[in-house]
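Q: Hi! First time asking for a complex rather than a single chain. Here are the components, and I think there are two in total. Is that enough to go on?
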Amino acid sequence: MTQDYSFISNWIAPSSKVLDLGCGTGDLLLSLQKKHNILGYGLEIDPDSITQCIARGVNVIEQDLNKGLTNFADHSFDTVVMTQALQAMRYPHLVLDEMLLIGEQCIITFPNFGNWRTRAYLNFRGRMPVTKQLAYQWYDTPNIHFFTYADFEALCLERNINILHRQCIAEHFPDRQLKSLWPNLFTQTAVYHLSR
Amino acid sequence: MPSDSPAANAIGLVETKTVDIEQPLVLACGVTLPVHRLAYETYGELNTQRNNGILICHALSGDHHAAGIHAGESRPGWWDHYIGPGKPLDSDKFFIVSVNNIGSCFGSTGPTTINPETGQPWGADFPSLRARDWVESQKLLMEHLNIDCWAAVVGGSLGGMQAMRWSLEHPDLVKNAVVIASSMKLTAQNIAFNEIARRAIKSDPDFCDGNYLQQNKAPLRGLALARMIGHVTYLSDELMGQKFGRQLRIGDLVDRNADPVEFQVESYLNYQGDKFSDSFDANSYILITKMLDYFDLSREYNNDPVEAFAHANCNYLVVSFSSDWRFAPERSREITDALLAAGKKVSYVEIESDKGHDAFLLPNQRYEDALRGYLNRVAEQLEGQHP
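A: Yes, that's all I need. Here is the structure of the assembled complex.
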């Protein structure tokens, strides 16, 4: 997952104010603190991750994203980031709206369910895909909304969300070579830089 | 890492020190204390840069004996679980200062000490206090101890209020504030409980309008009742259920003729009330509960907590406990949200606990890990490892 961090890092201005939704143990914020001297905050609900953030010097707030972000003022952050978590939100489109309200810009990364490997898995095995990136059974997965690169493009169009940059990440052959030709088929992780 | 052996970890014997602060202390109410005495304890050593001090701010009924054991006694200080070598407030790294604040009754100037003007105990005439008065008095102790800057000011409940007030009144003297189970101001319900406690004290015939010491009396029943009310509010329904349920200590409810009947919880509360009234002063209880009621962090900042915290210069750790209904997690969220809006560095944790408000005094692994993680960073920054 370090490749999406490098794209994210390029889109973050030095010394800016960044909110990371679902920050885990604070890897991204820590790297942005070191590289760009940002003022960063992470939201997290996992107790062990929170403890680790504190010990690493990452500002972390215990807060459940599904309960909304109404405690943050509009435009109070330069960038609001969410990596690999949108598919786990109860209402992804509303989370996106809130992110674009409290941040001037947003960065989203998500696993592309339209990748040919997941398509082939479902097609040929007739079972819900369990891959390295989506390593859960259908019944215990936190990922409750599967969507594709094309789905996300359509959502942005529908909700008038401005796409500043998009990056497709694929690690393997032939995905890496073909992802720019057929992004919906070969992207593994999509990284979007958005504004309203 | 903490040692596996508690004995090896213990801070050991500690002694209370006292100092007569001879600089006049102008209180918020306008009264000046020309001299005031402070009882305090210290754990650890002040470093040569004089910047590794941690101030412990006690709550309503707390005292300066936060850690270690007094000679001839077996009970350690009230926060011994968290203070000592290898503990979250590590006395190998920090110079930890714990002071009994003025108006209290454990050796510092307060209602039970002599008013030099009258030669009598202050009693009910002790001047009204605000949290800022405690902060200013603590600052004079800080100067006496030759500490340049607090690495952290730490406190729970009323102690958290002092930590926040420190960060606003002396932003350049505080690097970190650890605000535990606290609030920017009390709710109506909270003030109501305090008033019931005060009324209980004043209703005791031995209260004598607060001049009971001169008459060799003490409103023990009233103070015990005040504490019993307070004690219930510091616990959670769940914990009391677990601890006592409907267990009987005396009697039998099946045999309808078996009188008297006493529930375990009755016996426990009466014991707690009596124990407390033997050790605490009624005027101090009234004085300090009023101080809690009057506290309003942002009153002088246009009632805007964001504007208030804009004056601060330190980093914050805010901690709440899920079952605390006297200083509920929502109050700590308000503190955190105001700090976020003011652009201050803050971390917030809500610790899962069934122990109510008292949880801030009790062992809890997650709470311990959060304090340890945060204060380890503070110590590392002092050493310049993470500039």
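A: The two ends of chain B are 23 Å apart (CA to CA). Let me know if you'd like any chain examined more closely.
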